[in-house]
Amino acid sequence: MIELQNVTKTYLKGVQALTNINLKIEKEDFIFLVGPSGAGKSTFIKLLLKEEDPTEGNIIINGQDVTKISRRKIPYHRRSIGVVFQDFRLLPNKTVYENVAFAMQIIEASSKEIRRQVPMVLGMVGLSDKASSYPHQLSGGERQRVSIARAIVNNPSILIADEPTGNLDPETAWEIMKVLKQINRRGTTVVMATHARDIVDVMQQRVIALEKGRVVRDQQRGAYDYEG
Ligand code: ADP
Ligand code: ADP
Question: Backbone dihedral region of 88: left (phi > 0), alpha (psi from -120 to 50 degrees) or beta?
Fold first, then answer.
């Protein structure tokens, strides 16, 4: 469902951030994208979102070559991907409910759909009782669960999580991982860039390791570092 074919990304000034990447990511995959700072993880994510285009190669997502879609159709492409960030990026003057509903208003969902869908996803992330709270009234883990609810409320086929546990204590980080794994089990592909070694080692999911813009390892049940 995601396929990268001979993908190379060279930024202006000649920085080669990704070099000849060939990958297939299946619908049911939960991917940990690991590698040192500067390895190309953010660039990889930007290419999936079409925030950047590759210098060479093709990126096929849900049967469509995203390097060939017109500017006009980029918003539709982005709707198929939910994104969660390390720093949550919630709207501070909106409640939990409004933050999630806003993502549906942007795509002009009907108020009937919004009234049905928002409570459903708040239930999925365990925040039904916080619907009327504002972000500053929530813990870090709760804020991240709001941002996950917002990311999935429009039923994306792919969820990208960029260091989603980076600002959380270990116990809270595990709660977030359970939510992400549950979303994956319901049929959403998850691509998570992370430096959280312990999480990657315990979860035993597919690990794609980048170094200097190349895939140096792609393991079905991988660890953070290479093990035998
Ligand atoms: P990571 O997310 O793994 O830290 P990045 O994708 O951010 O890696 O960076 C990969 C390489 O591309 C690095 O050498 C970085 O300096 C370079 N890079 C990233 N963004 C840009 C940009 N907009 N212009 C030029 N070079 C960039
Ligand atoms: P499962 O996929 O078996 O239902 P979960 O989704 O609950 O498991 O968690 C995913 C993985 O994370 C499992 O391997 C589980 O053992 C591990 N895990 C969950 N919570 C913790 C925790 N608090 N500390 C360490 N590992 C944990």
Answer: left
Write down the ipTM of this complex.
0.75
Ligand 1 centroid to Cα of residue 17, in Å, is: 6
Question: 174 alpha carbon to ligand 2 midpoint, in Å?
Answer: 7
Report d(CA 208, CA 23) in Å as an integer: 9
DSSP letter (8 states) at residue 111: H
For ligand 2, whether the C-beta of 174 sits within 6 Å is: yes
Going by alpha carbons, the residue nearest to atom 26 of ligand 2 is 202
Cβ within 8 Å of residue 121, ≥6 positions away: 100, 149, 152, 153
The two three-digit tokens of residue 160, written as one number: 């990208």
Give the position of tokens 């190309």.
Answer: 40
Q: In angstroms, rounded to a whole number, what is the distance separating the alpha carbons of residues 96 and 100?
A: 6
CB 220 within 8 Å of CB 189 = no
Ligand 1 mutation target, pool 13, 43, 195, most atoms within 8 A of CB = 43
Q: Check: CB of residue 33 under 8 Å from CB of residue 200.
A: no
The pTM score is: 0.89
Alpha-carbon dihedral angle through residues 102, 103, 105, 111, given to the nearest 10 degrees = -80
Q: Which atom of ligand 2 is nearest to the CA of 171?
A: 23
Tokens of 63: 């049967």
The 10s digit of each residue's pLDDT in 192-225 is 999 999 999 999 999 999 999 999 999 999 999 9
Return the pLDDT at 13.
87
Chain segment 162-197, per-residue pLDDT in tens: 999 999 999 999 999 999 999 999 999 999 999 999
